[in-house]
Fold this sequence. Notes:
Layout: H1 2-31, H2 34-53, H3 88-102, H4 127-130, H5 132-151, H6 155-166, E1 171-176, H7 185-197, E2 202-207, H8 213-224, E3 228-232, H9 236-240, H10 244-253, H11 264-280, E4 282-285, E5 289-291, E6 301-307, E7 314-324, H12 329-341, H13 352-362, E8 371-373, H14 375-378, H15 396-412, E9 415-417, H16 420-423, E10 428-429, H17 433-441, H18 445-451, E11 454-455
Parallel strand pairs: 1-2, 1-4, 2-3, 6-8, 10-11
Antiparallel strand pairs: 4-7, 5-9, 6-7
Organism: Cephalotus follicularis
Protein name: Gly_transf_sug domain-containing protein/Gb3_synth domain-containing protein
Pfam family, one: Gb3_synth
Amino acid sequence: MYQITNLWRHYLLFTHSLQNIKRAIFSFLFCLPTSLLALLLILLLAYNGFSVFSIYLPFPAKFQPEPANFSPEKSSGQMVTKWSYSSTRTRVSSSVMYAVKEKQPVILKAHLPLLQKSTSSLIPINTSLVSKPKRIHKRKSTVKILRLGAESRLFSTRIREFFERSSCKLRFFMTWISSTESFGDRELFVIESLFKSHPNACLVMVSNSLDSDQGSQILRPFLDEGFKVIAIKPDFNYIFKGTYAKLWFNKLRKGNVDPGEVSLGQNLSNLLRLALLYRFGGIYVDTDVILLKSFSKLRNVIGAQTIDVETRNWSRLNNAVLIFDKKHPLLFKFIEEFALTFNGNKWGYNGPYLVSRVVTRVSDRPGFNFSVLPPMAFYPVYWSRIGSLFRGPRNQVHSKWLHTKLDLIRRQSFAVHLWNKQSRKLKVQEGSIIDHIMADCCIFCNSSRSSLQIIE
């Protein structure tokens, strides 16, 4: 009993001591200045807020980027070290140019979860779900292109009958992958220029959209004038038959080829032009190439886009104009390169870069009979300077330059590539080089001048 009483006494003393401490603390606080007390309260609130709203962000593990490899030992489609030129300096400078133009920077990607709610911030977002709508859209576009191409089972019959009844002096091919609404006055003028310089030629427009009632109305003025033109949906199976293109196309249809970020239609156009010329022979031109004079004396040629200023050898070819015999071995190599090294994520890799790679590789080999024409033949103005052809004379000095350039183009060029991507929005000014070229190459001259909006 005494122990219990003693324990109770100690407990009362302890609680009394706590109360005294509490009173001392409150007395101390009440004695503090008001501003200091407010500061303590703000710090307390800040700490409380930080503890409530803090978010945990999981970061991916660190990794080292793989360096871009330009080893000379790589297979076709990458940097090429074999050149047909004798100059060692030429080989080095050209190799470096290809490496710089075709490489892509290494991009490090770190995916962080979206900051929506604190409860969900601890769960990393599945990145495959984020990019799913874009991939679905690409898949639908791919299926649409392939389905439309497969519908045209009469392609072989129609094109054979067209060539037989037309008695073509020359066979021209174009491809159009966009809608009929996008086929504008500039494209129509390109066709005018083709028939102005080749009135007895045949033109095949390989296109899904133009092979329609609306497309027939667009081409009607040329048919009414007696020119031979037809628009046909492509039958990929027939066009690609017997080439590496058929193997690549079958893999694409089965989903075993990544179409990449570059438009699949654009890459199919790159392949179609090669396969069409390989099967039928003839001339391919882009729809932004104005023809200035007859191509009848040209055979098995491709044009250089740029030249090395030191060696005067070509440094880049282009595929906007191609003239080749049926089943030419260089076309076969182009198609093979496309199928084996396809890359849908690099613009131009399956087009201008491709023909440049292959020509470099086969230049010293026997059996490939072809010519590379200088830039003035088809590409008299570099793409970044195409605007100079649309501007009228500003002063006497500029006017003299325009007439000198126009005279040079008229004498040395077979065609002028307009580089539509850079020039589509440019207006043709009165007195410009394009204004003079239009006057030289038009068939429906009054309508062409007004539709292309000549600025006076």
